[in-house]
Amino acid sequence: MQWQGDGLVIGVRRHGETSVIAEVMVAGRGRCLGLVRGGRSPRLAATLQPGNSVELTWRARLEDHLGTFTLEVTKSRAADLIAERLRLYAAQIVCDHLRLLPERDPHDHLLDFALGLLDFTGDPLHLAAGLARFELTLLDELGFGLDLTSCAATGVTTDLTHVSPRSARAVSRDAAAPYLDRLLKLPAFFMDDQAAADAADMRAGFTLTGYFLDLHVWAPRRIDPPAMRQSFVDLTTG
């Protein structure tokens, strides 16, 4: 069997003395793994840096086999990312998040979102807002999406300011008032892309997504959050 596609390198691990197993997020195919023979050579090691876009061919005798990749880089981002610490942290977090997805399950919307974040060169707070929204989208794609359409207590659809950690549903300002110590803050930029957001809003956004990622993903799988996540939050929210 054989197929070709365009993808984003999200992870690499050693296999034997000279080869590696690469994880690539492929358009229309999702997270795919493949053996890259000679992948530890200088040329291929440069191609296989997480964050690089590649054109690849996958081959295997049967569809459920690991298969092998041959790859050519189409957009090398590694050097630019290394030069900018904040973008490098964001890229590492994005790639780690994509590795949480089921194998061979297409998530093209999330892939496009990731590519936009990797190529973003604007204001750090805007990058942080994008990454927080990416985590919110990731929860939804993993089947643990938050219901932010209406208040869990009253049914109103406006002035939603908090989220219940038990139901993952939004709560309006009035309904939340007696229970603020039990609720998670819902920053306005999660509801409106044009809403102004400051450092406190960003921290609240990452606290919200981090709570549900830990509840549904990290803790059940017994894995840690991405190593750079807290450093990124600290750098962007000061």
Explain this structure.
The model has no long low-confidence stretch (mean pLDDT about 95). It is elongated, with a radius of gyration of 20 Å. It contains eight helices and eight strands. The protein has helices at about 40-45, 80-85, 85-100, 110-120, 125-140, 175, 200-220, 230-235, and strands at about 1-15, 20-25, 30-35, 55-60, 70-75, 160-165, 170, 185. It is about 40% helix and about 20% strand. With about 240 residues, the chain is α+β, with helices and mostly antiparallel strands. α4 packs antiparallel against α5 (about 125-140), α5 (about 125-140) packs parallel to α7 (about 200-220) and α7 runs antiparallel to α8. The longest helix is centred in the C-terminal third of the chain and has 23 residues, at about 200-220. It has two domains: about 1-80, OB fold (Dihydrolipoamide Acetyltransferase, E2P) (Beta Barrel), CATH 2.40.50; about 120-235, no CATH class.
